[in-house]
Batch of 3 targets.
Target 1
Amino acid sequence: MKKLFGVLLDVQNSKVQKIEIEDSLDEFYRILNCSLVDMPVRKIGNKYFTIICDDEGLFAEDYKISATNNFGQPQLVGNLFIVSAENIDGELQSLTDDDANYILKHVLTIFTRKHPEGYPALTQVEY
């Protein structure tokens, strides 16, 4: 099975890491801890990436914001797995190590009323 290298932003466990996983829906469900994924292409800073996310995250009782735009407004919730926006015939592509490091520079700790302890979130995410 094809492997996929990307950045996992795990807001549920307050972890951010570069990981390599199998390129499969079951693996996305497992690492994101969800049962339905979406794969929007979004701009982070000035580069585009595919962000694999929980499509039903807003329905969770106590969701965590995982991505904000340039104004600090919520864009995505729940765990995220970020890979390259480049694809070949619709297939997802791994990040380069430079792109993974670029993404990590856009992760900051955010604090919310429900989560004053803070946790990592992706910033500067735009359409």
Target 2
Amino acid sequence: MRLDLTGKLALITGATGELGRVIARMLAECGADIVVHYHSNAAKAAELKDEIESIGRRAIAVKADVTKQDSIEQLKQTVEASLGRVDIVVANAVVQYNWTSVLEQPSEDYVSQFDSCVMQSVYLAKAFIPGMIEKKGGRFIGINTECSMQNFPTQSAYVAGKRGMDGVYRVLAKEVGEHQITVNQIAPGWTISEQERTNGMAESEGYIKQVPLKRRGTDQDIANAVAFVASDLASFVTGAYIPVNGGNVMPAI
């Protein structure tokens, strides 16, 4: 038994980012063809597309603004004209900003998080789930965060966006489940990325002390979880918020 995504087409938003690249590679290694979405880094998108094609998968790199519905619709049209209908959506892109206190956080940062967490997911659902309904199956996966459960100082805009996203995913899971479409969220902890491996690890002893597994997770750990919920092995898992953080936060019943 293995994670077999052969014949599936996966869209990863923010695929040129630290985590997005690893998710794209992992799904390709499991057999999926890949839509490499990017916002500004065309060179990295082309490099990732070539890498995926080198292992025998089909790939396309497409630019889009995930906070704009018309841009998502154009993305859909481009993908379907080139590779066909998407089977797996991974909403990974998010707007980056500087974190500070609620009293000091610029109002536009709350708007950017709402747009890139909540509205991105809504636009992606409107664009791609109708095709999944026609195919009688699909996977809709969002990258959330352990911060949604922590609510630490300076996290407010990020947490607000991700908690709003959580509500959309839970409702959507109930609305589209009858079509054998699963809707799940993967919630990483403080993850080790390619950038840290290259430039040096951040001081994390204090964080690790709180983690039951006594280590930070890696980008590959997150990609593994995404591949699982994308696969037929998780065909009866939906509406889930799945922390991948070594037990640092634990949802209660």
Target 3
Amino acid sequence: MDDHRLPRRPAMLDPRDADAIPGELDPAMRDEVAHVTARILVDRARSTEDPEVVDRLVRLVEREGLDTVAELWADAAPSSLPGALWRIYVLREWVRRDLQTILLRYRLGVDAAPVSEAVAGVPSPPEPADLRRLADAVLSGVFTGDLAVALERAGAFCRILSTGAAFDADAREHSDPHAATRMTRGASSLLRTAEELEHAAELWRQGILE
């Protein structure tokens, strides 16, 4: 982001940790803050059995705003814990804000990606509520289950959406070539995100996702 406003502290960040975050950060400090805050959230969630804590974390963007979370994690490397968390939060927010587009892309892509469908774990044919539940379940899995599996599910979801976006682009190529070009680029971006999440899962299993 272009400005350097002090981020409002996420709901699960201890005030002592938040007070240590200065308003203007150089790139090295921003990276350190991203890693520390991501680790704090994940470790604290995994140390509690309180479902309300997990629910608050799943709904972090709704409570604090996407810009606040972006201040902390958007610049983090994809092969890092904060970078992976950022991608999953953005994916959930996309589902929340543009469910009909997500549903269309998923339905277009799912038949061509049966392995990804199995990993994502969405009933076929999917209904809107199924995709909402998937987005919430992936984030819940980050904080309570096998984080690598949660990352793989998010990656599989992105692969299906990427395939659906590519099919949608093909269908619009003649009637709206500009929209088709945008969708093709979006499909490529989704595929790259899928690969980044899957790589993050591998790093977590090796114990080196920091």
